[in-house]
Automatic annotation (TrEMBL):
Domain Peptidase M1 membrane alanine aminopeptidase: from-to ranges: 253-461
GO molecular function annotation: alanyl aminopeptidase activity; metalloaminopeptidase activity; peptide binding; zinc ion binding
Record keyword Methyltransferase present: no
Family note: Belongs to the peptidase M1 family.
Organism: Roseivirga echinicomitans
Name of the protein in its database record: Aminopeptidase N
Cofactor(s) the protein needs: Zn(2+)
GO cellular component: cytoplasm; extracellular space; membrane
Length: 857
């Protein structure tokens, strides 16, 4: 490293950055072919990295790298991945020989003449790439999933070339940091802090990480393990209110996983950082988990749903230490495996910490609506997809792998039994510890433990997209019920059958009967004592998957005798039938009003209120919404005041009231509450006030500037203030200001803090602004490829969701359809994302186009 440093201090480099075109067919990204060839010859990899971070954002980060590895074949040139401009590279030494910088198509080409069989050492002086460095004024953090390590430093950026890392950070003196390994040496000199970290465990490139900046540090010993948390929260009461439970939930998750897997925590350390406006809920970096700060630091009086979401998020990221970090997918087409294991295990892990919760209901409401939200669309994708290049790996992510896959996994567990399933998981982890595995590797292990044909079962569940539809038929002879048939249909016409197990519940007079149904064939006889379809709840246990028939009369006639899971699955089924055009629009809102007046379970309240909100804004005409609004607003406000003394329940109804209010009287009420008027038992946090101010700026356009300025002046948290300053132009009453702001988003630099951008898009495309904002749809779609290339993994999906989610006009449908028609060779993954995001638009336009009036419905 010293020799390389001396070379790079020369005023002019003797190396050429012009690539000699000896590289043949090198393509951008990391192709499957390249990854396969490197895996066959490269091993025993270590990265020694040093980053010197200047205090000024405008100054580049000087970096040094020593890469060592074993090579079994040096007959061909070797490619290092580096998705940056060639001028970032300042010098390369290969096995003590100075090398020409030969750079082409995001790759550094190392000449075979400089390589040798056995151990090789490559030293590189460069300026760090900042695409995924997330560099702010007072902090920074790496986020390198799925193939972004190559945007930071030259690497073999593929998941099945695991390596160890020795990291040194040279930072401003006031900064602190965590990384994959423990701190080995820390020194301070001349206003700078130098931190050397111990060699990390063996991990994939996407898991390399560090967080550095002005953070507060909290350390606790949990179950014999010391954990450190970094955060930037300025509200000390909020920190105190959340701190102990955050550490406890991590400790409980580790203990549960150790018992379930039979493997002790496998890495050197366990730390985590809470980051403002983080792109995801969390990211499972070994020894340095990153979280969205507001996902863990909850405001006062959190809802049951928020508490469960936090616990599930912590359990999910902790589960990744075993499922994803210890055993990693071989290629990113199996990225879903690490996510399904984490989500599936998280659903089990939160149970002990919340004994009062119906966890079957929680699993249902957390997974089914989101999974159906993709599987019902024209852009539905299978759980396991093909991937030819890692530069498209980010598009593998979505609701199918996070929500449908856990449903599939639960069906698999029921098929072979919990004990055998656990034994299979333990064998899988022990067999592939610190290496890589594929989905077929797990199926091979499980297949030996059961007589079931898991390969055939997996083919339809994992390798194909979509969901079945179920229909009941009451067969009568001479007026008497002879038999009941349950038929499973494949709406795609491919005659697939999804083998699955679920239950039905039926009523005859005052008697309720359960029946477990194993649907392995297209037609199943159901032995239940019912007289009509309205007497039965299909999928009563919430474990089946598909579009099930449902009857709204079941709600009003049987509600008091239904379990919470039966209620939940009924509402999920009813909503899916509504979106299929089979249920009344205004009638559905009336049913929700009836339900929320009776229901106490927060999970069910959140479910039906969310359904109501979408129907209200997307599936009613303006005249219908105007007619429905007064009584709906009165109902929500009344329930907020009177239904419960629990502040969290009041917050649920307040949020629903805030989201739908359009009448002058209740908009005035919202303004008064924002301006300080008290509602007994309702506590609004700074984040709540910011959200309310945003809604008011749109509903009271003539007062928008004053509202926004007053809110900005009152914000105490500096990170929250910066976020609000960014979003304010999108909330402006001035169309010109909003247009100028939207134009600014075409510059990738203005999209760097993605959560801010998404909040701003939500304001631009608010339902009350649809007519003036529809013009943003086409340029937003035209930006999508660039969004995918420059943004993080969830950004393209969220960009399209925020762009299309609130529209219901024929003109908006035409914009989307014409865009896809005019781009026949458009990226297949991004086309799927557009079709998924447009599903609500397509359905609402189709239903409203049927001219179903308020009187008819």
């Amino acid at each position: 490293m010293k020799k390389l440093l001396l070379i790079c201090l020369l005023p002019f480099l003797i190396f050429s950055c012009n690539s000699k075109d000896e590289s043949g067919g090198i393509e951008n990204g990391v192709s499957l072919a390249l990854a396969t060839s490197r895996k066959a010859i490269v091993s025993n990899i270590n990265y020694n990295l040093e980053f010197r971070v200047p205090a000024a954002l405008t100054q580049p980060i000087q970096s040094l790298e020593t890469l060592s590895f074993n090579l079994s074949d040096n007959s061909e040139d070797l490619l290092l991945d580096f998705r940056e401009s060639a001028d970032k590279l300042k010098g390369i030494i290969v096995n003590d020989q100075s090398a020409e910088i030969n750079f082409k198509n995001e790759h550094i080409i190392i000449s075979k003449d400089l390589l040798r069989r056995g151990k090789n050492i490559i030293e590189i002086n460069f300026f760090a790439g900042e695409t995924s460095l997330n560099r702010k004024e007072e902090f920074m953090y790496t986020l390198l999933v799925p193939d972004r390590a190559r945007t930071l430093f030259p690497s073999f950026d593929q998941p099945n070339l695991k390596a160890t890392y020795e990291l040194t950070l040279d930072l401003p003196e006031s900064w602190t940091a965590i990384a994959n390994g423990p701190v080995a040496l820390l020194s301070v000199k001349d206003g700078r802090k130098n931190i050397q970290f111990e060699k990390s465990d063996l991990i994939s490139t996407y898991l390399f990480s560090f967080v550095a900046g002005k953070f507060k540090t909290e350390t606790q010993n949990v179950g014999g393990m010391e954990m450190t948390m970094l955060h930037r929260e300025t509200d000390s009461a909020k920190v105190a209110r959340n701190l102990d439970l955050i550490f406890y939930l991590h400790g409980a998750s580790i203990q549960w996983l150790q018992e379930y897997t039979g493997i002790d925590y496998p890495f050197k350390k366990f730390d985590f950082a809470l980051i403002p406006s983080f792109q995801y809920g969390g990211m499972e970096h070994v020894g340095a988990i990153q979280y969205q700060a507001n996902s863990l630091f909850l405001d006062e009086d959190p809802s049951q749903s928020q508490l469960l979401s936090r616990a599930s998020l912590i359990a999910h990221e902790t589960a990744h230490m075993w499922f994803g970090d210890l055993v990693t997918m071989d290629w990113f087409n199996d990225v879903w495996t690490k996510e399904v294991f984490a989500n599936f295990m998280a659903a089990k892990m939160v149970n002990p910490s919340f004994p009062e919760i119906d966890h079957e209901l929680n699993f249902l409401v957390r997974h089914y609506p989101s999974a159906y939200g993709v599987d019902r669309t024209e852009g539905a994708n299978p759980i396991r997809q093909e991937l030819n290049n890692l530069n498209e790996a980010g598009q593998m992510y979505g609701a199918i792998i996070y929500n449908k896959a856990p449903i599939m996994m639960r069906q698999l567990e029921m098929l072979i039994g919990e004990q055998l399933f656990q034994e299979g998981m333990q064998e899988y982890l022990k067999t592939y510890s610190f290496t890589n595995a594929t989905w077929p590797d797990l199926i091979n292990i499980l297949d030996k433990k059961t007589p079931e044909d898991l390969k055939t079962w997996s083919e339809v569940w994992v390798n194909t997209a979509g969901r079945p539809e179920f229909q009941l038929e009451l067969v009568r002879q001479q007026g008497m019920l002879n038999e009941i048939k349950l038929s499973q249909f494949d709406p795609s016409g491919k005659d697939r059958t999804w083998p699955q197990v679920f239950s039905a519940a039926a009523w005859l007079d005052q008697t309720k009967v359960y029946k477990k149904l194993a649907s392995k064939q297209a037609v199943l006889n159901v032995d239940l004592p019912i007289l009509r379809l309205g007497d039965i709840v299909l999928n009563a246990d919430g474990r089946g998957y598909g579009l099930f028939e449902a009857d709204m009369n079941m709600v009003t006639q049987r509600y008091s005798r239904m379990t919470d899971v039966e209620k939940g699955t009924t509402f999920v089924n009813l909503y899916e039938n509504f979106l299929d055009g089979k249920l009344p629009r205004v009638g559905y809102i009336e049913m929700v009003k009836w339900v929320i007046a009776k229901e106490e379970n927060e999970l069910i309240l959140n479910l039906v209120l969310g359904q109501m909100n979408n129907i209200y804004w997307s599936y009613l005409t303006e005249a219908e919404r105007t007619s429905v609004a007064p009584d709906l607003e009165r109902t929500l406000y009344f329930l907020m005041e009177t239904k419960s003394d629990k502040p969290s329940v009041k917050k649920v109804f307040f949020n629903a009231f805030r989201n739908v209010t359009i009448t002058d009287n209740n908009t005035g009420r919202l303004y008064d509450i924002w301006n300080g008027a008290k509602v007994e038992g309702l506590n609004l946090s700074e984040n709540d006030k910011v959200g309310l101010a945003s809604q008011l700026a749109i509903r009271l356009p003539e007062r928008a500037d004053a509202i926004l300025k007053q809110q900005l002046d009152s914000i105490k948290n500096p990170d929250t203030k910066r976020r609000f300053e960014f979003v304010m132009p999108a909330l402006s009453n001035s169309q010109q200001v909003r247009d100028t702001f939207f134009e600014s988003l075409k510059d990738a630099k203005n999209r760097e803090t993605e959560s801010w951008v998404l909040s701003a898009l939500g304001a631009l495309h608010h339902p009350l602004r649809k007519e003036s904002s529809e013009k943003y749809i086409l340029p937003s779609l035209e930006l999508l490829k660039e969004i995918q290339e420059t943004g993080d993994i969830f950004f393209p999906t969220r960009w399209t969701d925020q762009t299309l989610g609130n529209y219901n006009s024929a003109s908006a449908v035409k914009i989307v359809r014409d865009f896809l028609k005019n781009n026949p060779d458009y990226n297949a993954q991004l086309k799927m994302k557009i079709l998924q995001a447009a599903d609500n638009l397509f359905r609402s336009e189709r239903i409203l186009g049927g001219k179903q009036s308020l009187q008819q419905k």
